[in-house]
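This follows on from our talk about sequence and fold. Can you supply me with one protein entry, sequence and fold together? Could you add the entry underneath, on a fresh line?
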Amino acid sequence: MGPHLMKPRLTTLAVVALASMLGACTVTDTQPPPLAGPSEMSLSLTLTANPDVLSLDGASQSQVRVVARDENGQPKSGVLVRAEILVNGVPAEYGALSARTRTTDSGGATDFTYRAPAMVGNDVSSVQLSVTPEGAGFQDAASHFRRLVTIRLVAPGVIGIAPTAAFTFTPEDPLAFTNVIFDGSTSTAAVGAAITTYRWDFGDGSTGSGATALHQYSAVGTYRVTLTVTDTNGLSHTSAPQIVSVGPGALPTASFLFSPTGPLAGDTVFFNASASVAGTGHRIVSYRWNWGDGKPSSTGVTRSHVFDTAGTYIVVLTVTDEVGQTATTNVEVPVQ
């Protein structure tokens, strides 16, 4: 390295480097600078570095894409651009560029490749790549037309550490057909990376996504739930399964009306159980009638029945919900 090489120590830039999210970084600036001339007014540059976090191992690389557009936002070909490396805003040979100058293609794009240097001592820093247009019409404007993109540099071994998936859920003892809240926000990524996807396996054949998720179980049982997280390095981790025990919940309530209320023997009596209600989160799936006169029982929300002889009959209604919970009510029917 030449005498002008800068070796920044662990400073504020290092803290920025270790806290940064790994991923593509894009810087766009289309506003004309104070001293813009006519040529500059007709050009905008967009810079993207991918990835924007590199290991100080002497080999890791980032592709820096430059896209030039004209005043109408259309790709501009044939634009000569120059790149240089900056450390703390000062040009420095900290790492290497694949080229110093490139010309945009028919799509208005061109690429530079930046290779990180090997770590020396405790050197951890961030660098900026500066891109300026060159050629006719830009001699005076270039110093005002600099576009920058930042690449964070971290110690070897930091990139490549998988994230850690972790989650909680509430309530601890959920009931069927009620909301269970799953929260994966306690999952962590390695320094220099960030979690990008959360995928839930609820253990009942269904899945979900997002740092938090709502789910309802439709049956009583025990379920093994896992969370898989993936970070900006493409690394994944699946949590150890947690057991969610789902209980049956509230019982149904059986209720019915009949008419006429004072039937005669041989009359048709109509029964209606629509006033019956299921427990919270459940649904009634069966209505069974026992007429109390020895005739076969019947099913259905509404039924009719004929009592052949006078007397007082105890009619029993049993309702059953989808998890097999039952409720019963009985009413005396006086038949004259």
Summary: Confidence is low (pLDDT under 50) at residues 1-40.
